[in-house]
Specification:
mainly alpha
Length: about 80
């Protein structure tokens, strides 16, 4: 599978899961907000389905970094 094919499939996968909220992602430059402090995050723990989905998103982002988006490598590692 080429990088272009992978990215197209990855985008379709995320669109399918996110539905209407996918459009809100446009214009975002990094995967996390500037100044985000994960050690201060008080978000509830995810259930098994949401945790699996989160891991799949991290995997997609790790491949995106491998395919040339090294500018988001730190943020992706932080989220992982």
């Amino acid at each position: 599978m080429s990088a272009e094919q992978y990215l197209k499939l990855a985008i379709e996968t995320v669109k399918d899961q996110q539905g209407d909220s996918f459009g809100k992602c446009r214009g975002v430059k990094t995967p996390v907000e500037s100044g985000y402090r994960p050690e201060l995050d008080k978000t509830d723990t995810l259930d098994d389905d949401k945790a699996n989905y989160y891991r799949s998103l991290i995997g997609i982002l790790q491949w995106v970094v491998e395919l040339g988006r090294s500018n988001i490598a730190f943020e992706v590692s932080t989220m992982a």
